[in-house]
Amino acid sequence: MILFIQANDFAVWDIIMDNPSIPLKQKKKKKLLVLKSKKEWNEKDRRSVQLNTNVMHTLFCALGPDEYSRVSSCSNVKEICDKLEVTHEGTNQVKKSNVGIITLNYETFKMKLEEDIKVIPIDSTLSSMG
């Protein structure tokens, strides 16, 4: 998906990664960011929102029904990408946990008493192929 978006318009990828395409402004004398009204949008804000909308449309058209139902409530492309990444790859914590489980299984792998290294069990799916 990253390559697809970058190939269509690299500026879109920058907006996805740097700005969720929601025009914000800093509130006076405070460090809070608030939404700009549409009247306050400048040309850059409009371009950013338009690029976000174009990519969302492209993704919605390209996704299957299951993925679409997962991301249809997202309001910007960054949310869509994050949700799809978690859905298909898992979070970093899940990945680390899976690596730990696989490593433990490998380290505790042992041959059973009734098994012989010279005997290869024939799987029914393999025997039906030949």
How would you describe what is shown here?
This is UBN2 domain-containing protein. By secondary structure, the protein is mainly α. The chain has one domain. The chain has seven helices and two strands; from the N terminus they run ααββααααα. It has a two-stranded antiparallel sheet with strand order 1-2. A hairpin with a 6-residue loop joins strand 1 and strand 2. The protein is elongated and about 80 Å long. It starts with a helix and ends with a helix. The relative contact order is 0.10.
Uncertain ranges: none
- Helical stretch tally: 7
Tell me the domain tally. Answer: 1
Helix amount:
55-70%
- Report the C-alpha radius of gyration, rounded: 24 Å
**DSSP strand tally:** 2
Summarize the structure.
This protein is mainly alpha-helical and 130 residues long.
Task: Explain the layout of strands and helices.
Elements: H1 2-8, H2 10-18, E1 24-26, E2 33-35, H3 43-62, H4 65-71, H5 77-89, H6 92-107, H7 124-127
Antiparallel strand pairs: 1-2
Helix pairs in contact: 1-2, 2-3
Quick tags:
130 residues; 58% helix; UBN2 domain-containing protein; 7 helices; two-stranded antiparallel sheet; mainly alpha; elongated
